[in-house]
Specification:
heterodimer; A: alpha+beta; SH3 type barrels; 2 domains; five-stranded antiparallel beta sheet; two-stranded antiparallel ribbon; B: mainly alpha; three-stranded mixed beta sheet; about 65% helix
Chain lengths: ~170, ~280
């Protein structure tokens, strides 16, 4: 006595479905724990860059090898990322909703300004503080310049490459 | 996503409802009720965390006092750029890499380092002279970046404001009540520069900062080396960092972190680059 053909088709379909569900359910997710990071074609800093990701992006882990993790982005891009630029816990990104709610209720504008926009020069509040506290023009100039001071991400990468730091370790 | 949208709408909605209620109370000839509604909003608002925009105002105001108290900064562009590059390398893989960090060198012979909210970091010329390699500098900057990423100073400010009954902060606060804003900033500066943060926060910054520096590949033992030299120089009884726990306790905590987090003690030290870049300190 043999089972009808439809039974076997149903069983195979169920097995494929379970396999697909299992792969999805067990896929490990890591998050980008760096301001920016590059996905590379291989697991060295000499391999070609195949994509860029930013702080907080979720990545599906495909494999691991030493200090590198092979990942897939939500857009489907696949590549290797330096393991120290990832975290298994989801980081808190920018002004969180609670902070904006608090600022709104305290009477300030719940601005959409994010930290990454960067400030330039003293703002009105600190300028007002400087006036009341009698801070000298020289010291204001120092903090003003400090606030506006910028180094590009590219310069930081070059500095790390020169020193063999991070993913540029020899 | 739907819950986020709903929460975002609530953010805007609460403020609008509060303002509308204030207007109705005022128009109906009840300014006391309008004031009470406004005050209630402030009280509730003070229970929420401080956002980056407000943090930036607070950080700048504290930075102004740090610079004023320490007599200005070192004006050597190459050296300042180098210290900032080390700081950025560490900050970029810290737990809070999405804000700008800037490092200034205070032109002062004392041995200390400070961090104000929103990424304003200071090291003294005296401390820089005690540091022997880039890994030690990275660990010091890691400690200060940890104060910022863990929001230690903001925590102190939130608590002191609640105790003082101040319910506003940041831009609106400074505009509405500049005298109270000055009081809060002056209190934070006193805590930061004179009294010191809680020892628990300093230990936390040591251990978290050590992890930040190690993530970039710096030798985890380097910080132990620096702390040991400073202890030998000044001893535990007269802790060199008057605002920090004694050196022996700090060394022990850092060593424990290296063991438990399995941090590499064969990382990079980069002594040659450090010596080349800091020869004019």
């Amino acid at each position: 006595m043999t089972a009808p053909r439809s039974f076997w088709i149903l069983l195979i379909a169920l097995w494929i479905g379970l396999l697909a569900w299992g792969t999805e359910a067990w896929a490990e997710t890591v998050y980008v724990q760096a301001k920016t990071a590059q996905l590379r074609a291989g697991k060295t800093s000499l391999d070609a860059v195949v994509g860029n990701v930013k702080f907080g992006d979720a990545l599906e882990v495909v494999g691991r090898d030493g200090r590198w993790v092979e990942v897939k982005t939500s857009a489907g891009a696949r590549g290797w990322i330096f393991a120290n630029k990832t975290s298994t816990s989801k980081p808190s990104v920018g002004n969180d909703t609670l902070a904006r709610l608090g600022q709104s209720m305290r009477g300030g504008d719940a601005s959409t300004t994010t930290a990454s926009a960067g400030a330039r020069g003293l703002d009105k509040a600190s300028e007002g503080y400087a006036n009341r506290a009698g801070v000298s023009a020289r010291d204001r100039e120092v903090v003003d310049r400090m606030t506006a001071y910028q180094i590009s991400d590219q310069d930081v990468e070059e500095f790390m490459r020169e020193g063999g730091l991070g993913e540029y370790a020899k | 996503m739907a819950s986020l949208m709903a929460l975002s709408m609530t953010v805007a909605g609460c403020a609008e409802v509060q303002r509308a209620a204030e207007d109705v109370a005022r128009q109906s000839g009840n300014p006391r009720l309008a004031g009470a509604i406004h005050g209630a909003g402030n009280v509730v608002g003070s229970l929420f965390p401080i956002g980056y925009e407000e943090e930036s105002s607070i950080g700048q105001a504290i930075a102004l006092q740090v610079v004023a108290r320490y007599g200005g900064v070192v004006d050597q562009p190459e050296l300042v750029r180098y210290v900032n590059l080390v700081g950025r390398a560490v900050a970029n893989t810290s737990d809070r890499p999405d804000i700008p960090y800037r490092v200034a060198i205070l032109d002062h012979e004392s041995i200390n380092a400070f961090a104000a909210p929103a990424g304003y970091i200071f090291v003294t010329r005296g401390l820089l002279r005690q540091i022997k390699n880039e890994a030690e500098l990275a660990a010091v900057l890691g400690h200060e970046i940890a104060h910022v990423s863990e929001k230690h100073i903001l925590d102190v400010i939130q608590r002191s404001k609640r105790l003082a009954g101040v319910t506003e902060a940041g831009l609106s606060y400074a505009t509405n009540n500049p005298a109270a804003f000055k009081g809060v900033i002056d209190g934070a500066v006193k805590k930061l520069l004179d009294e010191g943060l809680d020892q628990e926060k300093e230990t936390d910054a040591d251990t978290v900062g050590e992890v930040f520096a190690a993530r970039v590949g710096y030798d985890a033992e380097a910080y132990v080396g620096l702390l040991t030299r400073l202890r030998d120089l000044k001893g535990d009884d007269r802790a060199l960092f008057k605002t920090h726990p004694n050196f022996s306790a700090r060394i022990e905590a850092v060593q424990k972190t290296i063991r438990t987090k399995h941090l590499a003690s064969n990382g990079l030290v980069l002594q040659e680059r450090f010596s080349r870049m800091t020869k004019r300190v």
